[in-house]
Amino acid sequence: MSLLEVEDIDAYYDESHILRSLSLEVEQGEVCALLGRNGAGKTTTLRSVAGARPPDVRAGTVRFRGDTVSEMPAEDVAMSGIGLVPEERRVFPNLTVEENLHLSQVARNRSNTVGRSVRASGDVRPLSEIYEAFPRLDERQNQMAGTLSGGEQQMLAIARALRQNPDLLMLDEPYEGLAPQIIEDVEDAVERINEAGTTVLLVEQNAAAAMSIADRCYIIDQGRIVFDGDSETLRDDDETRQRYLGV
Ligand code: ATP
User: Fold this and answer.
1) Is 192 exposed, middle or buried (0-12, 13-18, 19+ CB in 10 A)?
2) Closest residue (by CA) to atom 30 of ligand 1?
3) What are the pocket residues of ligand 1 if the criterion is a CB atom closer than 6 Å to any ligand atom?
4) Ligand 1, atom 21: nearest CA belongs to which residue?
């Protein structure tokens, strides 16, 4: 059984049919990438898994550790161990790095009253572990989040999600707008997180960067999965890359 199983989901924004019988699986412990052009349906896929609405998921099933989560509200999906870092990195600019990290704890405590039955264990991850994974944030604990660089804000957004101790961390275009050197720093952080035991589903338009850390890749095109294979296979498959990713 895979950690995450998405089976034949159909998702809509009003009457626009976006995801068409989309299926994918993420195995425990891996870094899996979902690649595709602008507008292919990547964000819609992550929102469908996370229980975020819209879109409206009208058919199919999402299972996490074998349990169906597709009918659950987003808060309960998060409590069951799925973390999502959305495209727009939401940090509180006028709070320090450390205050931002404490806020995620508040959010978790509040949702505990709703989600207690969903996730039996799952304490917040200690700040010391977070700082170990993100030495940059450690150095900037008392700095206002708004004054961090784009890459550091991305790391803070990821760190906030990690505080909830997710088993699966879904990242929506974490490299967007970052300089190549900074992308490497974020990649290193994602690799450290994965090595420490968190499974990662990475959505990217930057196929080269995603393939460099992903074990396996899916390509989505017009709401359908059109490729499923390991990163090396995709790296060697010029035709598929050209056709669906333009690289
Ligand atoms: P991007 O890199 O642009 O985020 P993506 O692969 O993540 O691309 P989605 O954001 O999932 O693509 O969008 C898939 C399709 O759904 C696009 O045609 C987009 O215009 C449409 N769409 C996305 N969000 C909404 C919304 N809230 N309402 C209506 N249509 C939407």
Assistant:
1) middle
2) 13
3) 13, 16, 18, 36, 38-44, 54, 205
4) 39
Q: How many A from CA of 241 to the centre of ligand 1?
A: 21
Give the Å distance between the CA of 24 and the centre of ligand 1. Answer: 19
Q: Specify the CATH number for the domain of residue 150.
A: 3.40.50.300
Residue range 201-239, pLDDT digits in tens = 999 999 999 999 999 999 999 999 999 999 999 999 999
Contact 85, 158 (CB under 8 A): yes
Query: Per the structure, how many domains does the chain have?
Result: 1
What confidence score (pLDDT) does residue 214 get? 97
Determine the Cα–Cα distance for residues 19 and 179; give it in Å rounded to an integer.
Answer: 31
The boundaries of the domain holding residue 180 are 4-244
**Residue numbers in the chain where pLDDT is lower than 70:** 105-122
